[in-house]
Each structure stands twice: as structure tokens, then as C-alpha cells.
Amino acid sequence: MNASCKSEIRNPKSEIVSGFTLVELLVVIAIIAILVAMLLPVVSRAKIKGQSILCSNNLKQLQLAWFLYVQDNDDYLPPNRVGPTQNGFDFRSLKGSWVLGNALLDTTTSNIASGVLWPYTSAALVYRCPSDRSTVRNHPTILRTRSYAMEHWLNMHSDQGTALDFANDQPFNLKKHNQLASVTPGVSRVFVFTDEHPLCIDDGVFSVPSPWQFPEVNPTPTWVSLPSERHGGGDNLSFADGHVEFRRWLWRRNPKTFSGTRSFAANEKDAQDIRWVQNRIPGAPP
Question: Which helix (H) or strand (E) holds 223?
């Protein structure tokens, strides 16, 4: 092959490589980065929405189990009995309750399986929100077994030796399902289960101060138990008529610690959130 022929031979690969400049490469990378930045929030929101839907489904199953228990037990609501643990500081749900134990301390699902609702919904994952990544105290590799709590004005009995005990025999602490028809705000507006904040969940009770029953004691909007904010700043609640609602809170509390005592509203938005919850307990105005 002569020299003139050799000079006409081309390497296609070398042309492609030499034709892709550094500037063009940087442009492509920049476009990809922009697309990723645009897609990530969408994917994140979709994930949050999907987990909230699964959480809502869990609450519907718990609410159905609550109904079935009522039907099998002469119209009595599932009990919500609480008392201190052996160390005297933590509180737990006692034998005969809808669920047993303390979500901060339980390392297995045995206390869930010992609750009176277990025969009606015998799947441990139903008791934990899919987005709940909180772990058991002193066991950072073990996920908690429960994320939900039951509103304390529904057949609650406290043996804690605290101010919560006074609610045991109050008229708005309902014992039977048929009482829901005779109190305001009605069956469709009394919530039963909710996703409790991981900082304060322990026993199975979600405590809500009642300004309707003791206006002189509860004049200021106050949290005792804190609701979860894990679903994009909102929470799911099931109601006594069977439906589930999502509530996006007006104020993101994002607490870092929880003292275990009353927490006054941080501002007017927080106060509105408290009033929203209080308007969904027995005795609230219609």
C-alpha cells in the first residue's frame, strides 16, 4: 500500500472521541444535574404520599378491628388501660388493653400480639407506620413495633398516679359504642387512632386535654401527647365511623426533646392545630 492510500485511511472512533469536547461534556453533565434536581423533589413527594396512603390503610384496618371488638363484646369499646413500668418512670399499656407494653422499650411484637385487637388484625406491620424509622431505646438497630395510639377519652383507665388518672370516671370518658350517638360532636367527628410523634409515644394512649369538660383547668391550648409530622408535616387519624383523615398541621413543631408534661401552644397556628384535635374528642361542640 502506497503512502497516498495510507493517508486516506481514517479511524472512526478517534473522530468521535476528538469531536466530543470538554465544553460539550460539561454541558451534558449540567443538563443531567438540572434534570436530577427537578426530579428528586417529585420522587420525594411521591414517596411521602405513598407512605401516607399505606399509613392510612393501617389505620383503617385498626379501626375495623375496633368495630369488630365492639360487636363481639356487648358494645364495649376496646379498653385502653395504662400504668407505670417497673422503673416507675415510663408508662405502659396493661393487660386487657387494645395493645400492651411501651413502644419505646418493646423489642419484639409480643405485646402487640397480646392486645385485645390482635385476633381481629393479626399482622404486626399494621401497628407501625411505614415511614416510622424510630428505634427502640438503647437498641439503635431495632425499629419500633408500633407508631399508633388511641384517643384517651375512649374507655381509658389510668393507674399512673398522675393527673391523667382523674379522667377515669369522667362522663366524657366513654365506655360503650352507643354512647357516641348521645354526645357531641357525633360519631363521624370523634377520632380513635392517630400516628403519634416518635418523641412521646410510649403506652397506647394519645392524651388530649378537654377544654369542654374542664374549662377552668384547660383555658390555654395545650398539647400532652404530640401528633406525628412525618407525612410532609401532617398526620393521619381514624374516626369512630370508620373513615380516615389526613391533617396537614399549620405549624411544624419539629421538637428535639419531649419533657413528658404539658406543652403550651407555640403560637396561634399551633393553637389552631390543638383546637382542631380537641374539636374531635367526646364533648366537643357539634
Answer: strand 222-223
Q: pLDDT for 224-233, tens place per residue? A: 999 999 898 9
- pLDDT-based confidence at residue 11 (cuts at 50, 70, 90): low
Rounded Cα gap, residues 89 and 109, in angstroms: 22
pLDDT digits 0-9 by tens, 96-135 = 999 999 999 999 999 999 999 999 999 999 999 999 999 9
Q: From the CA atom positions of the chain, what is the Rg in Å?
A: 27
Q: Name every residue whose Cβ is closer than 8 Å to that of residue 101 and which is 6 or more positions away in sequence.
A: 92, 93, 110, 111, 112, 114, 203
Q: How far is 160 from 85, CA to CA, in rounded Å? A: 9
220 found inside a domain? yes
Q: Which of 162, 147, 8 is nearest to 82 (CA)?
A: 162
Q: Per the structure, how many domains does the chain have?
A: 1
pLDDT of residue 85: 77
Is 63 within the bounds of a domain?
yes
In a domain, 1, yes or no: no
Asked if residue 284 belongs to a domain, the reply is no
State the sign of the Cα–Cα–Cα–Cα dihedral 114, 120, 125, 128.
negative
Cα four-point dihedral sign 226, 92, 237, 281: negative
Q: State which residues form the domain around 42.
A: 12-278
Question: How far apart, in whole angstroms, are the C-alpha atoms of residue 209 and residue 207?
Answer: 7
